[in-house]
User: Fold this.
Amino acid sequence: MTPLHPFASIDEWIEPFRHGFMLRGLASALLLSVSGALLGSILVLRRLALLGDALSHSLLPGVAVAWLLFGHGVLAMLVGALATGLLIAVASALLSRLTRLKEDAAFGAFFLVAYAAGIALVSRSGTGVDLLHFLFGNILGVGPADLALTAIATGITSMLFLLFHRGIVLEVFDPVFSRASGMHVRWFHIGFLCLAVLNLVAALQTMGVILALGLFLLPAATAYLWCDRFRTMLLAAMLTGMLGSTAGLVLSFYTGISSGPSIVLCLGAGFLISALLSPRYGVLHAVRTAWRERRAVRHTTE
Amino acid sequence: MAHHDIFRLKDVTVRYGRRLALDHITTQIPCGGLVALVGPNGAGKSTLLKSLLGWLPLTAGEIRLGDHHPRHLHPRLAYLPQRAEVEWDFPITVREVVAQGRWPSLGYFRRFTETENRKVEEALHELDLVAIQHEQIRRLSGGQQQRMFLARSVAQGADIFLLDEPFNSLDLAARADLLHLLQRWLGQGRTVIAAVHDLAIARSHFSHAVLLDTRLIAAGPTAEALSDANIDLAFRSHMPVLGARP
Assistant:
């Protein structure tokens, strides 16, 4: 296989997708870029990024148990993941209410234990390869059923966002007004949690447990650095996710890196460039403004 | 000038757990007045505002808005949030925030029509926000941010405005602007009820005052309600007593 370089010919970009499994992987990643942008934007704006990260790790034992009992059945994995995800969310909410522990500590403790239990389960009963696939994704494993789940997850997520767009914006931007105006989305928190788990499970085959959130978080964080309108931010996040995951899959095909890390690295490159160069919210802009202000002060005092 | 009353409170009592926040308040709030809620910290000013909005379950008593319970936000009622309650880094422009004022009457699904756009346009004009309508909201000054939320209430079609400490965190010029605006609204028959910290502002600019210290100390035209004797009564228990043993 020829090593890929940034200016590879179109043929080299297309070549990987002549394989059925790569095409399925691509379709799944493109779909997830849509729902990932929606969920990721809420994560970023509501400051839930780390919580989402913890949540994705804590799905492992559920997925592992389902895998031990039923093999690679998509539905079983979904149920298992949903069960552990909700269990841990509810348990940590309860613990933080009943003890002096704050929610982040309770959640952190639970997710570590769950994660360890998941790893223990898989490594006891599977091979090292199985564990790696769970943690980092295995593009070869994306079957038609996974693709169907992804399509359903994306469909449900997008539909709910379209329907409740106004309520969701208010819930994040100005919860007091949202309550006052009767647009309060009562089940916002739990609904968001369920949607997140649904999409994380859909992303599991391609991205792996550890990195699944990357496809949600990185495009949204990147778009946030550029956009001053919510709609533009969502669209930009979707596009970023699509470009990044396509590039990541191609990179993975030519280098043999697992698809999860490869996609996250490509998205990460876009994120870093944005964080540096974004004209309004980038590091360079901040440094330049501070420098100008200092010079102006010196100028007026001299 | 004979006012009729917009809010009538009867024996309104609110408890947070064991703590008594409002103690048997009975009073009326006149229509078309500029009403200051005054009292020491923890006197129940915010609690009273939230009760007027219908957001708090009353432990006892009742509040009537005209002839109604103000349970769900009546479209005539608008609440101006305190700064900390809003996510300022949300990617949203001034115009989009003002347009949210139309959402309560549109609900989730009905589309924005020309009528809605016109109301948004009018509100932007009234609060002098046209020039900055496409700015992201973090970049505005404190006064502009406040005018934006007032414009959202105007777009909503409200004529009763409940403001929680609106003068806090405003510079002098912005304070003067806000006072000027409130005076204008008073002339237009709008009702403004504001929790006010600054006694001087309440005395010089508000037509009516409600003086609270958990219970009602006084209510009525400002000069009477905020007399020195009444103020003394409301704030006395909160003054540090010099020489007192701990």
Remarks:
- Residues 75 and 105 of chain B are 8 Å apart (CA to CA).
- The two ends of chain B are 51 Å apart (CA to CA).
- The first strand of chain B starts at residue 5 and ends at 16.
